[in-house]
TrEMBL record:
Annotated protein name in UniProt: Putative enoyl-CoA hydratase EchA13
GO MF annotations, alphabetized: catalytic activity
Alphabetical list of Gene3D superfamilies matching this protein: 2-enoyl-CoA Hydratase, Chain A, domain 1
A GO BP annotation: fatty acid beta-oxidation
PANTHER family in the cross-refs: ENOYL-COA HYDRATASE ECHA13-RELATED (PTHR11941:SF124), ENOYL-COA HYDRATASE-RELATED (PTHR11941)
InterPro entries: ClpP/crotonase-like_dom_sf, Enoyl-CoA_hydra/iso
Highest taxon above the source species: Bacteria
Transmembrane segments: none
SUPFAM superfamilies, A to Z: ClpP/crotonase
Length: 268
């Protein structure tokens, strides 16, 4: 039986999905992402569930994609087509699907939410952050122009998006709130209770009306070009991988140990 990297609970119209890899700060391997997608599907198909809450066990929401060096060293040869297919399915594909599930969703974020962590939080309709939350996408340092699901421009505005990408710096919960990326900041101790209180308030509404409201906002964003932009920028992202493979044989330019060192500094 596989390890439960994602936990699921449903009660009072609320499905709670918990990332459960705290020993590595909920870094995402393929198994975790597949289990997470299965949990989203379970919540989507349960007629008793009106609201979905995504949270994480441990100190941090998610340190992003798992960059354990053993994973990279065991790969004898990288093919651009294989990288493209894997990321199209599990990164952009999953994130867009979660975004469009016709039930309201809330992400509860504490600690770091780095790069791939944004692919989990941004598809949610609302984000509640603990006051110790920090959001970043430092992958330009790896020779890549940003993480696979390009919500940056929409979530942050183009000036702040460029600054964060160019510098790799993290923004804290208050700056994210001012940018409009998150809905509420609470203390770390209040995060779960505040998120559930918000979910309970939403769950009281008629599910068809909630579905219509979500569809209206998402379609408005799509008319403005959101989904087309995400898919187009994903191809730019893959060009970065192809460039790195041509130069180093690996899909990133930067030494993984250095990247992990920078990520570790952000977790402090």
């Amino acid at each position: 039986m596989s390890t439960e990297l994602v936990l699921y609970d449903a009660a009072d119209g609320i499905a709670t999905i918990s990332l459960n890899r705290p020993e590595v700060h909920n870094a995402q391997n393929m198994e975790l992402l597949d289990q997470l997608d299965a949990a989203w599907s379970r919540a989507e198909l349960d007629p008793q569930v009106r609201v979905i809450v995504l949270r994480a066990n441990g100190k941090h929401f998610s340190a992003g994609h798992d960059i354990d060096r053993r994973t990279w060293d065991n790969q004898d040869r990288w093919l651009v087509s294989e990288v493209y297919e894997r990321e199209a399915h599990r990164y952009v594909g999953y994130s867009l699907r979660w975004r469009n599930i016709p039930k309201p969703s809330i992400a509860a974020v504490q600690g770091v939410c780095i790069a791939g962590g944004l692919l989990l939080a941004w598809p949610c309709d609302l984000i509640v952050a603990a006051d110790n939350a920090r959001f970043s996408d430092p992958v330009v340092a790896m020779g890549i122009g940003g993480v696979e699901y390009h919500g940056h421009t929409w979530e942050l505005g183009h000036r702040l998006a460029k600054e964060i990408l160019f510098t790799g710096r993290a923004i804290d919960a208050q700056e994210a709130l001012r940018a409009g990326m998150i809905n509420k900041v609470v203390t770390r101790d209040e995060l779960d209770s505040a998120t559930r209180e918000l979910a309970a308030q939403i769950a009281e509404k008629h599910p068809f009306a909630l579905r219509a409201a979500k569809r209206a906002v998402n379609q408005t964003l799509d008319i403005q070009g959101f989904t087309a932009a995400v898919q187009a920028v994903f191809d730019i992202h893959q060009l970065g991988h192809a460039h790195a493979i041509s130069e180093t044989g690996q899909p990133v330019l930067m030494a993984l140990t250095e990247m992990k060192g920078r990520a570790a500094q952000q977790k402090q």
